[in-house]
Amino acid sequence: GNGSGSGSAGRGSAGREASTSGIALATVGGRGSSGGSDVSGALSPRRDTRLDSFDGGSPEREAAELQLMLSGLRKPKPISIDYAIALTTLLLMAYSTAVKSTFSLIDCVHVQGLEGRYLFMAGTIECYTPWQVILIGFAGFLCVCPAIVYWIGEQKRTERSSKAWVAVLRTLNAPYTEECRWWKVVLLTRRLLLVIMAGLMKDTPVARNVSMACVVLASLCMQMWLRPFRDRSVNIVEALLLMALVVVAMLEIPAAAFRTAQVPLTGQVKADVDVASVIEIIITGVPAVFIVVYIVHQEWQRRQQRREQWQKAVEWIDAHKDLGLSRLDLMRMDIWDPTTWIARKPDGTKEAAAAAPVDGRSDSGRSSDEDDGGDDGKRGEADSGAAAAGGGLATPLLAPPDDRRRQERLRRLVSRGDDDYLLG
């Protein structure tokens, strides 16, 4: 994710120190709710650079990769987040339809033999009545919607931001690169211009088609120059679709010119126009079929990868039966938070429960600062020393379920953590 910055680097360096001193990975039930959704929603093994903090082929690396594979199976997000994402997506998808319907209801023309202006869609309805004035105001609001979306997208997340608000920001910015996070505004502006041209330039079809072709061509040039989407395949598909729109708009110009000049389409001219219509159908139909096939293929690959991930997780758990880990335990592991790691004794028992050093302080130092008792601090020092003496053996373990003090310390750390920690 974009917000992990310095917090990720800090946890990565702590992870390297812990690996060299023999600190074993274990958790007390995972990170608090403030950061868990970021891990399950934004990380994936193929692009998470924090895996580099573990040696290749080590048990820590295996546990890290497995947790990332299974992170999507954590507890579901609050329903408010789903509603926020669904509402934002629905509004963005319905924008062009709302613009088209609104402008069609304020498109007024003169009617021969009658005074005033009348609605183009219904010649008996007079324009500029109170209900239409409201529509004109709504049309003005739709015209400034791209600016509103840009302002929302530029807002920064803070520690007080609700999860629903963070989800809205991600819906607006996540598909695009950091340099082009405003690209959603370009898409909305393009839709607005195309709908206005198609609706308000009915009397001049040639000028309408030329103008629409110019808008799409400008969008194509910007798309190929900036490549705003994070996914390379999405950039390619977007460019192909814009090329198809440019060709369709250009093919419509000759037919529009004949209709404007009121020249009947006969003979070879009619045949050429029919061929152009067939080409338009092919150009618009082939991308649609390609997109459907691509979506089905991606879904099949996702399910296949999911089955392979589960199989790998089951094999890994079976190979470590002596640890008593289950699938649920593996999903709850939080390898990115060194404060939840515990040391392992040289004899391989699970009784050690000392947290890894964080910010140059030992678990005993942090315990004394938080008034958790001297006994717990002494136990942390002893177990950390035992782990360091035992060599680099590191295996994912679960902290004892009755370790109330450790869980309480973790909750306090989350509650007072910095922005990077809280926001993932």
TrEMBL record:
What parts of the sequence cross the membrane? 131-153, 238-258, 278-297
Residue span of region Disordered: 25-58, 346-424
Ranges of biased composition (kind: Basic and acidic residues): 45-58, 415-424
Keywords per UniProt: Membrane, Transmembrane, Transmembrane helix
What PANTHER family does the record point to?
Answer: G PROTEIN-COUPLED RECEPTOR-RELATED (PTHR11319), OUTER MEMBRANE PROTEIN PMPC-RELATED (PTHR11319:SF35)
Query: Per its record, how is this protein called by name?
Result: TRP C-terminal domain-containing protein
